[in-house]
Specification:
Helix content is 25%, strand content 28%. The protein has 141 residues and is of the alpha+beta class. The protein has 2 domains: 4-76, no CATH class; 107-138, no CATH class. The strands form 2 sheets. It has a 3-stranded antiparallel β-sheet, with helices on one face. A two-stranded antiparallel ribbon has the order 4-5. The longest helix is centred in the first third of the chain and has 18 residues, at 24-41. The chain starts with a strand and ends with a strand.
Length: 141
């Protein structure tokens, strides 16, 4: 099943002047024809035109709904679509990921963490223990 990518462009709002093209309808058709031919050169196929609402600000505090006409083009993707995966392997034992062992603290890391856990002389004088992740309160004593 082919997959597609899409491109959406605003439809021309007014016609373009060209040699031999007379009247507003013909100028508008010429602008639309030129846009479609440019897209076709890039491999895009015209799919449809949609008119969709767009809410836009009007003034400082209000908003209004404006209807926009959009042209939708598509082209077949270059194989970047979904792929079928191979069937999972069935083994007698379930595959379980083993947890990685935490690295052992080095001499500097161990000394620093021990110093944080032990109350120092200042804590003994004030009666307040301060350690990371623990509540601060009075020592029982």
């Amino acid at each position: 099943m082919p997959t597609y990518e899409y491109k959406v462009l605003p439809a021309p709002a007014k016609g373009e002047k060209a040699k031999g093209v007379k009247g507003p309808e013909a100028r508008f058709a010429h602008a639309l024809e030129r846009l479609m031919n440019e897209m076709a050169e890039g491999g895009w196929e015209y799919l449809r035109a949609d008119t969709l609402p767009s809410e836009e600000r009007q003034g400082l505090t209000s908003s209004t709904t404006v209807w926009r006409t959009l042209l939708v083009f598509r082209r077949e993707s270059a194989g970047d679509g979904p792929r079928l995966l191979s069937a999972p392997t069935t083994a007698d034992e379930p595959m379980v990921a083993k947890p990685k062992a935490a690295p052992a603290p080095g001499p500097a890391d161990g000394a620093a963490s021990d110093a944080l856990r032990r109350p120092g002389p200042a804590a003994e004088r004030t009666g307040v223990l301060r350690a990371p992740g623990r509540m601060i309160g009075r020592r029982a004593g």
